[in-house]
Design brief:
single chain; five-stranded antiparallel beta sheet; 6 helices; 10 strands; 38% helix
Length: 258
């Protein structure tokens, strides 16, 4: 990335070639963080995060990167955790205020749009800085019986996806997600695929150790956003690791035959 040459002093100043450097720097903060993946399945949505362990002294299971915004809404993030806390609080506030005003659950697209507007606001004022975090929001509407997956970027853009990825492994994750049949995949199948993608992209030689976090919003969880039961999470993670090892052994055998 080239230097801002003075145009990066404020998020409101465009460079001569139409770039907002502070927003690009915020994107870079997300790109340097652990991978986060979301998949919309036929029977719900699944979220998975590569939570990098910055210190061996950290308590297992702490500093979660998967959070519940409301009974039927969940969020995964990649980027700066302090910035994510602000976005999580905003999302929960939007869920609560919508229910108090209209007496019903906020639709996933409305929640994602309101959160995206909040993120975008921080790119419009010189006294503020952009959010160094990206989010994947899963939601279910009890009235329409429909579920959806949205991704919010640091510039305030949000789109609806069948599969989305953030973080340092986003390009590889997107490539692997595109290979899946997203029109028929179930949540249980997606759990293993997400675990497999994250473990495949993680470089044990270069990257720090990590914990795999998984959550879902589906028929099996009564359409409430919940962390996947630990027994099931351990099972799919073990199955994903075995598939990766088997594939590596097959590759080694083919090289030996040549």
């Amino acid at each position: 990335m080239s230097s801002g040459a003075g145009y990066d002093l404020s998020p409101t100043t465009f460079s001569p070639d139409g770039r907002l450097f502070q927003v690009e720097y915020a994107h870079k903060a997300v790109e340097n963080s652990g991978t986060a993946i979301g998949i919309r399945c036929v029977d719900g949505c699944v979220l998975g995060v590569e939570k990098v362990l910055l210190s061996p002294l950290l308590k297992a299971g702490s500093n979660k990167q998967l959070h519940t915004l409301g009974p039927h809404h969940g969020m995964a993030f990649s980027g700066w955790a302090p910035d994510a806390r602000q976005l999580i609080d905003r999302g929960r506030s939007e869920v609560q205020s919508y229910e108090e005003t209209y007496g019903s659950e906020i639709p996933a697209e409305v929640l994602a749009e309101r959160m995206a507007q909040y993120v975008h606001y921080f790119t419009l004022h010189g006294a503020l800085r952009p959010f160094g975090v990206g989010a994947i929001v899963a939601g279910y509407d009890p009235e329409t019986k429909k579920h959806a997956l949205h991704m919010i970027e640091p510039n305030g853009v949000q789109y609806r996806y069948f599969g989305a990825a953030l973080g340092k492994g986003r390009m590889g994750a997107k490539t692997e997600i595109e290979k899946l049949n997203l029109s028929t995949i179930t949540c249980r199948e997606a759990l293993k695929e997400i675990a497999k993608i994250i473990h495949t992209l993680h470089d044990e030689g270069k990257d720090k150790p990590f914990e795999l976090e998984l959550s879902w919003l589906c028929e099996e969880s009564s359409w409430k956003h919940q962390h996947v039961p630990s027994a099931l999470a351990n099972e799919v993670e073990a199955a994903a690791k075995k598939e990766i090892e088997d594939a590596e052994m097959e590759d080694d055998d083919e090289e030996d035959d040549e």
